[in-house]
Write the structure tokens for this entry.
Amino acid sequence: AQSVTQLDSQVPVFEEAPVELRCNYSSSVSVYLFWYVQYPNQGLQLLLKYLSGSTLVESINGFEAEFNKSQTSFHLRKPSVHISDTAEYFCAVSDEGAQKLVFGQGTRLTINP
Amino acid sequence: DAGITQSPRYKITETGRQVTLMCHQTWSHSYMFWYRQDLGHGLRLIYYSAAADITDKGEVPDGYVVSRSKTENFPLTLESATRSQTSVYFCASSDKHARYGYTFGSGTRLTVV
């Protein structure tokens, strides 16, 4: 069965510093990969997704994630974070053609001024 | 408005009482899901439904009951609430393929006293 590991439960960074949130999944032939963001007291919102094609995907608010098949990873990065990026971030994966998403445990990103 | 709506937003109930959490979606999505979110456990799938009158257990179904008589509604019932069911509950919906991701509601914060 598919599984997802988010290696860090909490990541504190200073404002305007770069950040990387790590995500690894168990191997599969073809997968769909997602990052969701959950702001305080809200539901999860889709941040970006990889389905096929270019291995680098970007969101509208400056995040990017790179699909690395050999390392079965889909790490999320941002070159310069803002206070407003404070949230919990969830990585999710689905086998191609399957319906259910499997979610990681989440990474809480805290931005310090 | 189109989207997915959960009600109530907050609920306090007593141990042993029955409580129903409501979920309504206007996307005409075939799949609907119930998750609970607890510190240290991330998101855990309780039940899901592939279509009206088709439901199936997730990871943590004990103590919960679901029904889906109409495509747009997917209520979750706690038949006899326990303190361990204190949690934040999220409903989500999806088209028939996971490639489109899930759309989440804003959540119901349930406290069992």
